[in-house]
Specification:
With 250 residues, the protein is of the alpha/beta class. The protein is 51% helix and 18% strand. Strands 1-2-3-5-7-9 form a 6-stranded mixed beta sheet, with helices on both faces. The chain has a 3-stranded parallel beta sheet with strand order 4-6-8.
Length: 250
């Protein structure tokens, strides 16, 4: 099995770990499992705070699985695939627990969307970001609202238009995507553990109410992200996108 999602709970701290051998590029099954894990842990009274992380040290998440993108053969299938990222984002939005993001490496496309959807994101200096969707003929429609919420329209537009260019972790921190950036994974993990332990001792009701305030104004995202998924699902069928994905895979 090349792709999986696991979770564990210790002293009120839940950790979700996802993995795929292709730079943590996520197929639909992994996205479904991620959304279900977030929802399940959000409903678990023994969980006070959640840490979201990926395996390996090179890439946090390389976005969508190109193999599955190439296999899409109808607008309906396309929408269904892109709803995978929409469901993960909405699950994190609705989750009553704070989610800490651990971004140890590069984030692309949907990976940037997930980093934008956690409540507090810490990273290493190697955690560059890129929204590559436009370069393959789609556009960051599904993740766009989450990225714009964190970075603002100007920074989000910069990422979306410069679809072939990386922005480094310092740029992402100055824009508000990352709260802190560390030199290496060991320092990152120490900071995450300390933060998670502190939060696990705070009033769960107060944190839940505060999270609602953080996400105020996003109540229409179930419909919005569904509409955005349909846009991407249609565009992925174009000859331009098919050819572009083939070149990327090569």
């Amino acid at each position: 099995m090349t792709s999986k999602v696991t979770h564990s709970i210790s002293n009120g701290i839940a950790t979700i770990n996802f993995y795929d051998e292709k730079s943590n590029a996520l197929p639909g099954s992994t996205l479904k499992a991620l959304a279900e894990s977030v929802t399940h842990l959000g409903d678990d009274d023994s969980v006070k705070v959640i840490v979201l992380k990926s395996a390996g040290d090179r890439a946090f998440c390389a976005g969508a699985s190109f193999d599955e993108l190439m296999a899409i053969d109808s607008p309906e299938d396309g929408k269904s695939f892109f709803m995978g990222f929409a469901n993960v984002i909405n699950a994190m939005r609705r989750c009553p627990k704070f989610i800490i993001g651990r971004v140890q490496g590069k984030a692309v496309g949907g990976g940037v969307g997930m980093a934008s959807s956690v409540d507090f994101c810490l990273a290493t200096k190697h955690a560059s970001v890129k929204l590559s969707e436009l370069a393959i003929g789609i556009g960051p429609f599904v993740v766009g609202p989450a990225v714009q919420r964190k970075l603002g329209l100007s920074k989000m537009s910069e990422l979306a238009i410069n679809a072939s260019e990386w922005r480094d972790a310092k740029w992402a921190m100055e824009g508000g995507l990352y709260q802190e950036v560390y030199d290496n994974i060991d320092e990152l993990d120490v900071a995450i553990n300390e933060l998670a332990e502190r939060l696990s001792k705070f009033n769960p009701e107060a944190m839940s109410e505060l999270k609602k305030n953080f996400w105020e104004g996003c109540e229409n995202w179930d419909q919005l992200l569904s509409e955005r998924a349909a846009m991407s699902g249609k565009l992925v069928l174009s000859d331009f996108t098919r050819n572009a994905i083939s070149k990327f895979k090569q």
